[in-house]
Amino acid sequence: MNEQPLNLKRLHPTRHGRTAHGLLAALAIVALLLLLSVLLPLVWEALPALTAPFLWGKGQGAIGPEVLNTLSLVGGSELLSFPLALLVGLYRVEWVKSQGPLLRVFDQFATTMLSVPSIVIGLVVVDVAIARWHWPVSTMTGIVALALMNWPLSVAYVVEALQQIPGRYREGSWALGASRWQTVRYLILPLAWPQMVEQAGLATARLMGETAVLIYTAGVNAAVHWSLWGPGESLAVHLWLLRTEGVGQNAQAQAAATGVVLLAFVVLVLWGSKRMAQWLKNA
Amino acid sequence: MVEKRLTKREGVSTILDIRVQELEVWYGPAKALENVSLHLEQGAVLALIGPSGCGKSTFLRVLNRMIDQVPTVRVKGSVHIGAFNVLDDDIDVTALRRTVGMVFQQPNPFPMTIFDNVAYGPRLAGVRSATKLRQIVEDSLKKSALWDEVRGKLRRSAMTLSGGQQQRLCMARALAVHPHVLLLDEPTASLDPVSTAKIEELIVQFKGRYTMVIVTHNLQQAARVSDLVAFFEQGHLVEMGPTHDIFTAPQERRTEEFLTGRFE
């Protein structure tokens, strides 16, 4: 290593800073333009189909049932998987003391589960729930499949949120005579909620766009009904179906419109979870 | 009012001296403490000195069973604090830790308001009345000499305080559950000289009211605040005696070498 002596005349912090700033800003603008180049044509294509009867009518091609299905699929699977993930995560971080081989196996298992393709989970659900237990292809089956898919991810972010809380807080609490449970209840969870809620929002948004696992489990049909055991086509699946097999002159416009609605829901969920996290943080 | 409560409690409670006999601690296969026996009378201040890794903090953490958090730890011997048989498996650790408070090396206030920090312990103990909580918080903050600096700001986050203030807040938090013993694990290691002086002042003030054990790497601090000094080396208690005696005429050669900086 031949170290050059520091030549102050060749240091131009202000100029370098400005160049870097300009470069990064340009990259950001390019990224934004790319996004808009996808979004704007989609919205343009969708406009003719975005009518009230299409959104909440009961007629041919209306997506009201799909909206409802999407909400119950995503909501149901979060209701099922998040509490379970919370319990597992809490136990993993707050109760397990040893760093033994069992813990390594658990972590390895959790990571592996994270990388299982969703369609594999769908096939497992088909094999077990539909083929053996004779569940119908329905919203309920879809909920179970999505929950299975979401669960490892939820465990991962719960664990991460808990591990980010410094150990010295726990020590402080224990030293005051708090039990593990009290420490979790009154100190750890209030601190961890904001991050967990935000991550749950991200996970929910991801579930909204999920198709592969739902095609076999929740099906590609929708009808106006309130039962969890009825056909449960979601918005994303509907979009996929219209784009691949849609016939009729309006199909592509309807697909685009479905996409826009789906996107709106995703944005809503992300924004809502962020706001809620913020609110929890300040509470 | 505060004084009255303290004396009343002391009247009820048994003697809170600390008696340690043949204490041995292992971390896995490694022995951290070997055959440590000592006696500390109620209200006295004991300073633990010695090189890093000599077992001072381990000893401290045995006293309120915080050592339990280490997965592979094994503890043998007997430790009595007042009526508590500390190493008993069936001991109520919660009650022990309320009696034996602890302040850590790094100020660790919870990321909540100043009030909630001090009220944390009492709330866990079931104090619900707002008036009572306010009274406890005020008393504790006054005892830790923080009241004048934070009165009227109790709803602010504890994280807005300076390092020294945070440490005194941790003191207040420990005092709020009315302990009789205070364990101080290098309480001034991360503080500036002025904050250090304030903490030391508190320790001197607390003499007689609380039995205190303080781990310190600052020999002058040990000389300033303690009644007794115990010198640890490689898990052994080399020597323990009145502070003045240890600093002027240590009995053991190792102690003398450590105190005079000729230690290897």
From TrEMBL, chain A:
Its main location: membrane. The chain crosses the membrane at residues 21-47, 67-91, 112-133, 139-159, 213-231, 251-271. Keywords: Membrane, Transmembrane, Transmembrane helix, Transport. It is a multi-pass membrane protein. It is found in: Cell membrane; Membrane. SUPFAM superfamilies: MetI-like. It holds the Pfam family BPD_transp_1. The keyword Manganese does not apply. It comes from the Bacteria. Residues 67-271 form the ABC transmembrane type-1 domain. Belongs to the binding-protein-dependent transport system permease family. This is ABC transmembrane type-1 domain-containing protein.
Automatic annotation (TrEMBL), chain B:
Keywords: ATP-binding, Nucleotide-binding, Transport. The keyword Nucleotidyltransferase does not apply. Pfam families: ABC_tran. SUPFAM superfamilies: P-loop containing nucleoside triphosphate hydrolases (SSF52540). Coiled coil: none annotated. The keyword Transport applies. Residues 18-259 form the ABC transporter domain. CDD domains: ABC_PstB_phosphate_transporter. It comes from Sulfobacillus thermotolerans. This is Phosphate ABC transporter ATP-binding protein.
